[in-house]
Amino acid sequence: MLLAFHKPYGVLSQFTKEMPDHRTLAEFGFPKNVYPIGRIDWDSEGLLFLSDEKELNDKLLNPHHGHERTYHVQVEGIATEEAIAKLRKGVLIQDYKTLPCQARLLSEPGYAPRNPPIRFRLSVPTSWIELKLIEGKNRQVRRMTAAVGFPTLRLIRVALGTVTLEGLAPGQWRKINPVW
Questions:
Q1: Please, how many CA atoms are within 13 Å of residue 97, restricted to the half-sphere of its CB?
Q2: Residue 139, C-beta contacts closer than 8 angstroms, at least 6 positions apart
Q3: Domain count, the chain
Q4: In Å, what is the CA distance from 143 to each residue of 97, 140, 150, 160?
């Protein structure tokens, strides 16, 4: 069984509650014996897979298999073509150079406001970038946009391979039968 879940902001990608005020996957009524495949940070939103099939973890997350992850990233400032070109080539984050990826500027995608709202400053505009990666290191997208001078304010994973968030509101999930 494979499930697609729209993980809301502020929810940990785990079932175990480590602190009383943490929200976890346990509150969303998943079938028994499923677990998250990969993770999305608590301060990010978007598509998360859950499954009861352990072999899917490697199949879906190992960069060797080339499953694309698509992110929409709201950044502080107006992202430049120079920054987008750097992201495409790969950037140095910590002691690691990211793999080349697809990157482009997005027009305002029209997402509902996040609760809580992103940091807002009248004197600093924001813009959106779409990134398509085949790897997923810890906080990689946030580190990549910061490395090119545009810190991430909001991060939404909108697709994994051919599966998208379409039709899923935050907190909703559905069974899927993707073709890999």
A1: 5
A2: 41
A3: 2
A4: 11, 5, 10, 20
By 3-state DSSP, what share of the chain in percent is helix, strand and coil, each rounded to 5?
Answer: 15, 35, 50
| Same-domain status, 46 and 128 | no
How would you label 9-29 residue by residue, b for 16+ Cβ within 10 Å and e otherwise?
bebbbeeeeeeeeebbbeebe
Q: Which amino acid is at 159?
A: A
More confident residue, 94 or 131: 131
Q: Which residues contact 86 (CB under 8 A, 6 or more apart)?
A: 147, 148
What positions carry a catalytic annotation? Answer: 41
Containing structural domain, residue 178: 1-66+163-180
In the chain, what percentage of residues exceed pLDDT 70? Answer: 93
Domain shared by 62 and 75, yes or no: no
Using one digit for the tens of pLDDT, what is the confidence trace for 46-81? 999 999 887 776 666 666 656 789 999 999 999 999
Instruction: Write the pLDDT tens digit of every residue in 9-40.
Output: 999 999 998 888 889 999 999 999 999 988 89
Claim to verify: residue 51 and residue 75 sit in the same structural domain: no
pTM: 0.91
Question: Where residue 161 falls among pLDDT bands split at 50, 70, 90?
Answer: confident
Contact predicate 77/126, CB 8 Å? yes
